[in-house]
Amino acid sequence: MKNSLVSYIAPGAPATRQPANGEEPYLRPEIGFTPKWYREAIGIDFGERWHTDIAYRADTLHAMRAELGRRFPGAGIGVPRYAPDIPDLLTGTHGACVVAGIYGRPIVYHADQWPVATGAPLDDAQIAALQPPDLDDSDFLGALMRQVDDIERRTGRVSGYINWQGVLNNAHRLRGEDLFTDLFTAPDLCHRLFDCVCTTMIDAAKRLHARQRASGFEVSFFTVSNCLVNLVSPELYRELLLPYDRRIAEAFGAIGVHNCAWTVDPYLDTYAEIPNVAYIDMGLESDFPRARARFPDARRAVMYRPTELADKPIETIEQDLQRIAHALGPCDVVAADIESGTPDGRVLALIELCRRISEDHYGVR
């Protein structure tokens, strides 16, 4: 699929996207593990140092890729498609909390988890007076850009991707649970918050992309993470959130829509109004033929839950994959957030099933 995106899970990082190269298997597995998995396997500490110390992150990336190669030889798990020989020292930095950090939210780091944004929710008056932060004066973004400079010195170019999240996700980190009441009772307040967050996401991403471009690495897309969309009705999404996803899409050459593992059906028609969609994912219970019809030119993906991979009989997993390939393919099968305790054999079986189904039924590796 021309100009499409595929799922990408760097070691120690939450899932994001990367450009397709046109040689994707019909059924392409993308495998990712939680920080706890790496912590228990090889003792990595994902605390604040992992997110701020490039040398330490580089050492742990080497250790993680070695462990993945030992346990899953030839699978290419966690290897970026764009430059497999250059370490990706950017993806995963501050997890999903970068925009929250720019807005001054305290971030708590854990040895075996991704970072979490904390702090008291913004009240009505604070949101009414909210302005996008001055990025020239942002300590958080400034520190991140200094890391970018260090990455270029070490590797020659700044490859990788920051997880900017989505407008709803970031707004929730600032406002808290009251946001879902605001959607009904204070839509103007929501628009104030959404507008600020959207502006910051676009402006900060464009700054980083320009810096990466100057180093020789091109990034011309954006991914919105709509992990909380199932808590918002399709009508409210269309009215209050679609304008911001459209605005982001129009600001970049392509957009990926991460719908998480929720059933995408209620949002499909509205998502189809977003321009330049190059990737969209969904849960296993989604209407695959309808999704393929609505997004014929985007790379589609199924978020295969870690509990499904760990608990389902292999025969049932194969049936799931056959149905995915028949009804949604060509597509990705994203097995993210795999926890410690899941047998390696399960992961290897999923990879082999995807390979066999792609070759035997579609003649494509």
Describe the 3D structure:
- The protein has helices at 35-42, 48-52, 54-71, 98-102, 124-128, 139-155, 167-175, 178-185, 187-215, 234-251, 268-271, 288-294, 306-311, 314-328, 344-362; strands at residues 5-8, 16-19, 27-33, 107-108, 116-117, 221-225, 254-258, 277-282, 299-303, 331-338.
- The chain has one domain: TIM Barrel.
- The mean pLDDT is 96.
- Helix content is 47%, strand content 13%.
- With 365 residues, the protein is α/β, with parallel strands linked by helices.
- Strand 4 and strand 5 (116-117) form a beta hairpin.
- Helix 6 (139-155) runs parallel beside helix 9 (187-215) and helix 14 crosses helix 15.
Give me the secondary-structure topology.
Layout: E1 5-8, E2 16-19, E3 27-33, H1 35-42, H2 48-52, H3 54-71, H4 98-102, E4 107-108, E5 116-117, H5 124-128, H6 139-155, H7 167-175, H8 178-185, H9 187-215, E6 221-225, H10 234-251, E7 254-258, H11 268-271, E8 277-282, H12 288-294, E9 299-303, H13 306-311, H14 314-328, E10 331-338, H15 344-362
Parallel strand pairs: 3-10, 6-7, 7-8, 8-9, 9-10
Antiparallel strand pairs: 1-2, 4-5
Helix pairs in contact: 6-9, 7-9, 9-10, 14-15
